[in-house]
Write a structure and sequence with these properties.
There is one protein chain. With about 70 residues, the chain is an all-alpha fold. It has a domain of about 35 residues. Helices cover about 55% and strands about 0% of the residues. It starts with 12 loop residues before the first helix and ends with a helix.
Length: about 70
């Protein structure tokens, strides 16, 4: 059996899933790819956290701690 990875435009995604189902193809997995909106929400949340850290309302972490998490 062969595996194919495709990038499907958001507006055609549901149609593609229906097509795969109707053709009787096996759906292996679905990658979690962030949408533009999700990416922007993440950036906005990060900026809010930076603001809170600067105001002293939230404790930040050191660069060393951040790198250790990676």
């Amino acid at each position: 059996m062969k595996r194919v990875t495709l990038q499907i435009p958001d507006d055609q995604y549901h149609f593609f899933l229906e097509l795969v189902q109707k053709l009787g193809l096996e759906r292996v997995d679905e990658e979690a790819i962030e949408t533009k909106e999700e990416t922007l929400q993440g950036i906005e949340q990060g900026l809010r956290q930076v603001k809170l850290i600067k105001e002293g309302k939230m404790k930040g972490s050191t660069l060393k701690d951040f790198l250790n998490e990676l």
